[in-house]
Amino acid sequence: MKYQALSILQPAVELILNGEKKQEIRSWLPPTLPSKNILLVQNLNYLTFDDDEDEGLAMAFVDFTDFSPWTEEDYYLQGVKNTLGRVWKPGYFTWKIENIRRLAKPIVCKARKGIYEVDLNEVSVYMD
Description:
Elements: E1 2-9, H1 12-17, E2 23-26, E3 35-43, E4 53-69, H2 72-83, E5 93-112, E6 115-119
């Protein structure tokens, strides 16, 4: 089955799953908001160019329900752990993360820039 995915540097997906990270910070906005059922793929290497790829792990589905400009005040309120060492600068946006659904088992897949499509079989969500 095909899914819309977003790759995020490690350990950000783990922080989202633990409830420590509630917003994603990006310099761009998704094509539509809300963006629902986005597969989060955690990867190790920063992707610089549009055709860059990395190996990643699909770990969860989330909904991005709202956005706002990322302010310097937001930066200080989030703390370094939740900004992953990123220094504040204008022109970025926070995407509100909701409806987090952990995959029962992470799945190896490609990590790419932007919101991209992955084709995965046997995806199941963890049930409490």
